[in-house]
Amino acid sequence: MQLHELQRATKQKREKRVGRGGKRGKTSGRGTKGQKARAGHRIRPAIREELKKLPKLRGYRMKSIAAKPAAVNVGTLNQFFSAGETVTPSILAERGLVRRARGLAVKILGDGALEKKLTISGCTASASARAKIEASGGTIAP
What we know:
Radius of gyration: 33 Å
Order of helices and strands: HEHEHEEEHE
Strand order of the largest sheet: 1-3-5
Largest sheet: 3 strands, parallel
Low-confidence stretches: none
CATH class of the domain at 70-141: Alpha Beta
Distance between the termini: 69 Å
């Protein structure tokens, strides 16, 4: 058997071509007028209106949306934690300072004053926050 001798197991079903002469005249089985009677017609789905109202996700692979860390100020830690406690992203989420939906990436910022010795782990910190934590006798572990 050669390549040019291959045949299909079942016949290919041809699409019915409407409006090409023959026994159907005038509107050729398409009804009268309107979008469905035209050549190349396409009815958009009903959900299109909802899709058009959604905001665009811009940028290559949406990097701008991906995992921005939640910000927690040093002054907030001073209010919600007592001296000697350990601060982790999961504890911050339990106490309602960080939303869990953000993937628990937390950055501590230097706004406010810290008067308690805290051990911070699993969080990143700005330079001013790091200085205030270390000045109060606390430590930061990455």
